[in-house]
C-alpha cells in the first residue's frame, strides 16, 4: 500500500509510537510518506526530506508542546490549513491507498477529509485520548462553553469522516460507542499502543546513583514521559515528600510537559535529596538510564471518566520494570496491570496512602519486582508488538 501518515509527532532522532509504526510498515513492503506538524520546521508548506528511509515533510505551525492552553488552541486551529497546503505542494502527483492519522488533535480532520476526497482513498484514525471530554474533566473549560461546543463538533465530524477507528483498549471502544451513538460497532477496532521489544541495556546502577547523588542501594522509582495535567503531578510530589527521609527509596523523574517545572521546583524547594528531575532525553540515552531504575510509575488524574492507557507503559514493560500505578476508576488499565499482564500494583488515585503502601511493598521485595517485571516484558512481546498494529491495518485495508 501507499500510505500518507498525518501526524503532530515524528522525532528526527530516536523513535516514538508513530515513527516506529511507519518504519515497521515500510519494512513490510509498504510505501509510507509523512506530513508532520513541527514548530521548528523551515516553512509553512515544507518540502520532502529523507529521514530513516522515509519521505517526510515537516510543516511549520505554532507550538503545541510545553505551552499554555490558549497558545496550544490557536496552533490546533491552524493545523488543517497548513497541512492541506503542504500536501498540495508535495504530494498531489501521488496516488495513496490509505490516510493514517491520530487524535487528538481533532482539528486534523478537515485536512484528512480533503485528502481522502482528493486521493479517493479511505482513512484510519488511531484514537488515543478522547478530546474535548478530557479537557472538561480537567477543568480547562466547561461543557457549555464555546470551546467545548466547537471542539465537540470537530470530534463528531472526525469520527464520521474516518473509514475505520482504532482504540487503545476495549474500555476505550465501549466509551466511544456509548457517547457517539451514530458510530457503528463494525467501524471501531482494538488498536493498542505497540513497540518492538529491544534487548535491555546493561545497568550500571551504582554509578547512576552516585552521579545523581541518590542514596546508595536504594530502590529507584522512575516517572517518565509527558508531565501535564492528566498525569496528576501533585500525587507524585506527595509521594516524593512522603518518602523524603527513607533512604531505601529514590525517585527519578524524566520528561517534559506543562507541569514539569512544578515538579522540578518542588524537588528543589523541599530539598528532596532522594529525588531528582532530569530533562527529556534522546531515546537511547533514556533507555540506558532507565535500565538503572527498578520500578516504573504511572499516575493519572482521578477525575477521568474516560479509560486511558498511558503509552509509557510500553517503555516500562520493555525494560522489565514492574509498574506501580495510581489511576482513576474508569480505566481498564487496572485490569491490564493486575490481571491480564500481572505486571504491577494498582491503586485508586483518590487514596494516596494506598499508593504509598504499594511503593513501599515493591521497594522491600526484590523477588516480587523481578517476577512482575518479567511478566510485563513477556506480555508486551506477546500482545503489544508492532507486527500486531501492521496486521490490523493490513487486514482492514490491504484489499
What does this 3D model show about the protein?
The protein is of the alpha/beta class and 399 residues long. Helix content is 42%, strand content 19%. The strands form 2 sheets. Strands 3-4-2-1-5-6-7-8 form an 8-stranded mixed beta sheet, sandwiched between helices. A 6-stranded parallel beta sheet has the order 11-10-9-12-13-14, sandwiched between helices. Helix 1 packs across helix 15, helix 2 (69-91) packs parallel to helix 3 and helix 3 (109-119) packs parallel to helix 5. The longest helix has 23 residues, at 69-91. The radius of gyration is 21 Å and the shape is globular. The model has no long low-confidence stretch (mean pLDDT 88).
Spell out the key features of this protein.
alpha/beta; 19% strand; eight-stranded mixed sheet; six-stranded parallel sheet; 15 helices
- Strands of the widest sheet, in order across it, are 3-4-2-1-5-6-7-8
Q: What overall geometry do the principal axes of the alpha carbons give?
A: globular
**Terminal CA distance:** 9 Å
How much is the average pLDDT? 88
Q: Rg from C-alpha positions?
A: 21 Å
**Main sheet summary:** 8 strands, mixed
The share of residues in extended strands comes to 15-25%
Which residues sit in consecutive blocks of at least 5 with pLDDT less than 50?
A: none
Encode the helix/strand succession as letters: EHEEEHEHEHHEHEHEHEHEHEHEHEHHH
Helix content: 40-55%
Tally of helical runs: 15
- Helix and strand composition category: alpha/beta
Number of strands: 14
Amino acid at each position: 500500500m501507499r500510505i500518507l501518515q498525518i501526524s503532530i509527532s515524528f522525532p528526527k532522532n530516536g523513535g516514538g509510537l508513530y515513527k516506529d509504526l511507519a518504519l515497521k510498515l515500510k519494512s513490510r513492503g509498504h510505501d509510507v510518506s509523512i506530513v508532520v506538524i513541527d514548530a521548528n520546521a523551515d516553512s509553512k508548506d515544507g518540502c520532502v526530506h529523507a529521514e530513516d528511509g522515509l519521505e517526510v515533510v515537516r510543516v511549520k505551525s505554532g507550538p503545541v508542546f510545553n505551552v499554555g492552553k490558549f497558545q496550544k488552541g490557536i496552533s490546533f486551529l491552524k493545523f488543517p490549513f497548513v497541512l492541506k497546503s503542504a500536501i498540495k505542494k508535495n504530494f498531489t502527483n501521488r496516488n495513496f491507498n490509505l490516510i493514517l492519522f491520530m487524535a487528538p488533535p481533532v482539528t486534523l480532520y478537515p485536512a484528512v477529509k480533503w485528502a481522502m476526497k482528493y486521493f479517493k482513498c479511505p482513512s484510519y484514525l488511531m484514537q488515543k485520548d478522547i478530546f474535548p471530554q478530557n479537557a472538561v474533566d480537567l477543568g480547562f473549560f466547561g461543557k457549555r462553553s464555546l470551546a467545548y461546543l466547537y471542539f465537540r463538533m470537530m470530534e463528531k465530524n472526525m469520527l464520521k469522516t474516518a473509514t475505520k477507528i482504532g482504540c487503545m483498549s476495549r474500555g476505550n471502544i465501549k466509551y466511544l460507542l456509548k457517547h457517539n451513538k451514530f458510530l457503528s460497532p463494525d467501524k471501531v477496532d482494538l488498536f493498542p499502543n505497540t513497540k518492538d521489544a529491544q534487548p535491555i541495556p546493561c545497568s550500571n546502577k551504582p554509578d547512576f546513583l552516585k552521579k545523581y547523588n541518590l542514596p546508595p542501594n536504594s530502590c529507584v522509582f522512575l516517572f517518565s514521559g509527558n508531565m501535564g495535567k492528566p498525569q496528576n503531578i501533585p500525587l507524585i510530589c506527595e509521594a516524593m515528600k512522603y518518602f523524603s527521609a527513607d533512604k531505601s527509596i529514590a525517585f527519578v523523574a524524566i520528561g517534559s510537559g506543562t507541569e514539569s517545572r512544578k515538579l522540578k521546583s518542588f524537588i528543589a524547594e523541599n530539598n528532596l535529596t532522594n529525588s531528582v528531575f532530569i530533562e527529556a532525553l534522546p531515546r537511547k540515552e533514556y533507555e540506558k538510564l532507565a535500565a538503572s531504575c527498578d520500578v516504573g510509575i504511572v499516575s493519572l488524574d482521578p477525575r477521568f471518566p474516560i479509560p486511558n492507557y498511558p503509552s509509557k507503559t510500553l517503555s516500562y514493560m520493555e525494560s522489565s520494570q514492574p509498574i506501580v500505578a495510581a489511576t482513576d476508576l474508569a480505566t481498564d488499565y487496572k485490569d491490564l496491570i493486575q490481571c491480564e499482564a500481572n505486571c504491577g500494583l494498582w491503586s485508586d488515585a483518590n487514596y494516596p496512602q494506598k499508593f504509598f503502601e504499594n511503593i513501599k511493598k515493591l521497594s522491600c521485595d526484590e523477588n516480587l519486582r523481578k517476577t512482575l517485571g518479567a511478566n510485563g516484558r513477556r506480555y508486551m512481546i506477546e500482545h503489544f508488538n508492532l507486527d500486531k498494529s501492521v496486521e490490523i491495518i493490513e487486514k482492514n485495508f490491504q484489499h
